[in-house]
């Protein structure tokens, strides 16, 4: 199961039986071959590896040998870029990691339309709108208060739903 994850689905969305399967990643990926180091929590344990592909949200990493790795770590690329991550899958000498901070790796492909939409929605200043309604005394109006509350909830729901679609894995 070299290129397949624990579900038996490989990067192309083909399962072990050769049937089409849903691809769980929606962030665009870039195939690369780049040396890197995995730095474990204490900073004293490092493992050399090769990054096989990378996206805005994660990477597929080939280890030099089968090693038990799990939890949080830092990926340090050979150019010095460092990204906080966590292991989301581990099969043999290959691991999948999800970046845990909001920084976009410099090697990641440019954002797709869905990622760009999520960025725009997240930048909406809903809290500012609610504060302005309150400062103008408009939140005293029952209809405005209910609509503002619904807008706040809808914004949060939309960010969560779009985030799941763009999601890391």
Word description of this protein:
Helix content is 27%, strand content 30%. The longest helix is centred in the last third of the chain and has 25 residues, at 142-166. Strands 1-2-3-6-5-4 form a six-stranded antiparallel barrel. A hairpin with a 4-residue loop joins strand 4 and strand 5 (82-91). It has helices at 113-123, 126-135, 142-166, and strands at residues 29-40, 46-55, 58-63, 72-77, 82-91, 94-99. Helix 1 runs antiparallel to helix 3 and helix 2 runs antiparallel to helix 3 (142-166). It has two domains: 1-109, Thrombin, subunit H (Beta Barrel), CATH 2.40.10; 113-166. It is an alpha+beta fold and 169 residues long. The radius of gyration is 21 Å and the shape is elongated. The two termini are 18 Å apart.
């Amino acid at each position: 199961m070299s290129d397949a994850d624990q579900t038996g689905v490989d990067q192309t969305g083909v399962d072990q039986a050769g049937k089409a399967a849903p691809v769980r990643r929606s962030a665009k990926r870039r195939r690369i071959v780049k040396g890197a180091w995995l730095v474990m929590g204490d900073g004293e344990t490092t493992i050399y590896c090769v990054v096989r592909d990378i996206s805005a949200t994660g990477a597929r990493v080939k280890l030099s040998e089968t090693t038990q790795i799990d939890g949080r770590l830092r990926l340090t690329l050979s150019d010095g870029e460092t990204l906080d991550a966590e292991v989301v899958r581990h099969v043999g000498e290959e691991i999948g990691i999800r970046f845990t901070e909001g920084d976009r790796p410099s090697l990641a492909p440019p954002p797709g339309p869905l990622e760009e939409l999520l960025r725009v929605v997240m930048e909406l200043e809903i809290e500012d709108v609610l504060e302005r309604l309150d400062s103008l005394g408009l939140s005293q109006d029952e209809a405005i208060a209910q609509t503002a509350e619904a807008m706040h909830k809808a914004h949060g729901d939309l960010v969560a739903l779009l985030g799941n679609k763009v999601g890391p894995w």
